[in-house]
Structures are given as structure tokens and as C-alpha cells.
Amino acid sequence: MMGERVRVGVVGASGYTGAELLRLLLAHPRVDITSVSAQSSAGQPLATALPAYFGLCDLTLETVDTAAIAPRADFVFLCLPHGASHDVAREFLGRGVRVIDLSADFRFRDPKNYERWYGVPHKAPELCAEAVYGLPERNRREIAPARLVAAPGCYPTAVQLGLVPIVDGGLVVPSIIADCKSGVSGAGRTAKREILFSEVAGGLRAYSVVGHRHTGEMLDQLSRAAGRDVRLTFVPHLVPMSRGILATIYAPLAGAATDEAVRAAFETAYTGEPFVHLLPVGAEPDTLHVRGTNRAHIAVSADPHGGRVIVRVAIDNLGKGAAGQAVQCFNIMNGIDETTALGGAAIFP
Description:
By secondary structure, the chain is α/β, with parallel strands linked by helices. It has helices spanning 16-25, 46-49, 66-69, 85-94, 111-118, 136-143, 154-168, 197-200, 213-226, 259-270, 319-333, and strands at 6-11, 31-37, 75-78, 98-101, 132-133, 148-150, 175-182, 205-206, 231-238, 245-252, 276-278, 296-303, 308-315.
């Protein structure tokens, strides 16, 4: 497919993730966006639902009709609510269209784990074992030939990037605390009282302290990396900013693991990775410095007083935590340079 253009449909185009995905795809030199769909706003010009696209895209939002979309698409991105991608993904795959799903619907190999964390039976359990978990830094080889890729969640992306090198290397005891802060776009575009400006501005609060759905995804993937069960306490917080995640992660050091050994593990894991950057000693990740990008900034310190490693990771929840990572997977699946449409510095200030 080198040199060919790829016909792409975006399903669920009117939400925050869909909007960010369109921003990236419109700048992609190998993509033709042939369909944008959103059930709730079907019939509207895209630029009415998303005024940022006035003059950039003249497509009209369609209903989510796989039979109508599939003949015009080689790939579809599904930006649908959790639980809504099961049947849609199956139908597109049956029509020969490759799928990148940005919901949680195919992130678990065992459909029983999906049911445990999302509270409903999986409607396409036969696809769970086939779906490839779309974290390129771990699964690049498996992503390339896949028909179905499950893009990771935003919190799990930040936490895994901050833990896998040292969990995999046995440098920490896998009893972990992940203290994470996220901007309000992580809650989606639907109107909700708890994310109104006057409810959020000037405040800071934890939510879903026990049993957040992303906990299951983290446990599943980190246990695979560790080769045994991992214990994890994950506490998310809502911060009065539009976008971004800062994860501060604590794990007990194993044996005589040193600061040098911990840092070396990150250097080994991420040397050559285009989007994951271990910051110099003394520098701290800041969500503002990755805003609008597919980058992850990481700092790591071994705390001799507490006997723990402290990892800090900043990503954009709509970038590396969603749409950017999905485009990175798309590039890998099409033999396109991984950084295509994903370069550039953060939007600063």
C-alpha cells in the first residue's frame, strides 16, 4: 500500500475524540476521509456540529449505516460509546473493512473481563481474541497485520508507559498506586452537571475512587507484562483544564534496585521510540508541554527514603490517550511512517 491513498470513515465523528481524530486525518497526506457519521446529529454538515471545520471539510454527517459506509472505506475508526462498537465492528469486518476501535469494547481478550468491568455481556465475544491491543510501544509487530485494533484508554496509556519498563524488568514489587489527574474532555462531550464550568473551575476532586473501569484494563495489561498478578490502586482526579493527563505512579523497589537501574530500564525501553521521551534529570512533565500532541513525557526517580520508585507521565488524553495513538496504529497497519500527521510541538501556551 506504499504510496496509495487510504479511504477512511470516522464513525462517531461529532464527539471530542472524533473531532481530534478529524484534525489529524485532515493533515494526513495518505488519507481520504470519505465518510463521517454520528447517529445523534445525522443530516447536519460536519461544520455545523464542529464549527472548527468550517472551510476545511464539507462532508455531511451520516447515520451509522455499515452497508452504506463500507463500500467507500478501507478503514474505519470507531469513536462510539462503550458497548456500541460490538455489532458495528463485526459488520465492518464482515464487509472487508479494517477497524480501529477507540472504545473499550475490544481491549480485553477475555469477554468475561469486559462484562465484569462494564457490567454488560459482550455482544461479539468471538472477536476479542483476534483484537490487538493498540499500544505501539508494546505491540507494534502484532498491530501491523491486524484487522481489528483496540486503542487503549487514556489513563491506561499513561500508566502503562510509566510502568511497563520496570514491571517487565522486575525492578519493582507489583503493588502499585497510580494517582492520575485528567482534564474534563475525558468525560466526553455530552452535557453533564458535574463537568459544567461552574462545577469544575477552581476546584479539584477525585472520582470513581474504587472500581474505575480503566482499572481492569490496567490490571490485565500490567499482569501480562509482569507475568503474574499485579496489585493496583488507581485514583483518578478531575482537574479544571480542557485536556491532558498527569499520572504520578508509586511502586516499591524490588531488592537493591537503584535509581540508575530504574532510569536505564526506561532508556532501554524507549530509545528510538518517536513519541515517548524520558526527560533529563530534574525536569518535570507538564500537560501543557504535550497538549495537542501524540507525545508522552516521563520523569522517573527512585526515592531512597520511601523505598519506592516515583514515575510521572504527561500525555494529552485526546492525543496519545485516544486519537493520536489511533492514527499511530493506522500508520503502522498501512506501512506508513509512524510519525505521519503526528509531528510538531505542543500548542504552547
